[in-house]
Design goal:
heterodimer; A: 115 residues; mainly beta; seven-stranded mixed sheet; four-stranded antiparallel sheet; 11 strands; globular; B: 112 residues; six-stranded mixed sheet
Chain lengths: 115, 112
């Protein structure tokens, strides 16, 4: 059990470019969440997968954002045509399928800077 | 939108002192959780308290929950410099889907 892994740790991009982040959850976890966190704020929910199904999306997830979880394992979050307001820490979390599923295990995040 | 409001926003104490952080929320809940975040890192789960519980302990941590006042407190006893971090409360807003709604956090600084 190596924990939740996110890649890359840091990403600097120019406005208008597309970026993609990857999250590898803990292997037996079937639930996977994406959150966004800006400086001085708590994490804000973006979207949630149970296995490969995307079950919920926040209104924060505009049509420039897309998330996938093929085969119910790793997940990717893509942001198209990035804007400066997208600069934030993007956090991935996963949880157990059974008892204790309320507890989230977070990765270290991907810090995105849009210039 | 943010669910909880932590109070204070920042807390600075000396090693050995106790640190108390408060959290208020607005909706019904199944449980309330506290997480810790070191600068630039992900969040780490500390403790979960269910809506039918009033108090819970874990090591140097003590959490209370008052559902009538929609508030919770986190007490860290005998604080250490290594406790320096941001502390967030999170609730489920009564959902069982597992998504959590976080407050803005309390930045705790413990001076050696």
């Amino acid at each position: 059990d190596t924990g939740v892994s996110q890649d890359p740790r840091h990403k600097i991009t120019k406005r208008g470019q597309n970026v993609t982040f990857r999250c590898d959850p803990i292997s037996e976890h079937n639930r996977l969440y994406w959150y966004r966190q800006t400086l001085g704020q708590g994490p804000e929910f973006l979207t949630y997968f149970q296995n490969e199904a995307q079950l919920e999306k926040s209104r924060l997830l505009s049509d420039r954002f897309s998330a996938e979880r093929p085969k119910g394992s790793f997940s990717t979050l893509e942001i198209q045509r990035t804007e400066q307001g997208d600069s934030a820490m993007y956090l991935c979390a996963s949880s157990y399928p059974g008892q204790g599923r309320e507890k989230l295990f977070f990765g270290s995040g991907t810090q995105l800077s849009v210039l | 939108s943010q669910q909880g409001e932590e109070d204070p926003q920042a807390l600075s104490i000396q090693e050995g002192e106790n640190a108390t952080m408060n959290c208020s929320y607005k909706t019904s809940i199944n449980n309330l959780q506290w997480y810790r975040q070191n600068s630039g890192r992900g969040l780490v789960h500390l403790i979960l308290i269910r809506s039918n519980e009033r108090e819970k302990h874990s090591g140097r941590l003590r959490v209370t929950l008052d559902t009538s006042k929609k508030s919770s407190s986190l007490l860290i006893t005998a604080s250490r410099a290594a406790d320096t971090a941001s502390y967030f409360c999170a609730t489920d807003r009564g959902s069982t889907l597992g998504r959590l709604y976080f407050g803005r956090g309390t930045q705790l600084t413990v001076w050696p």
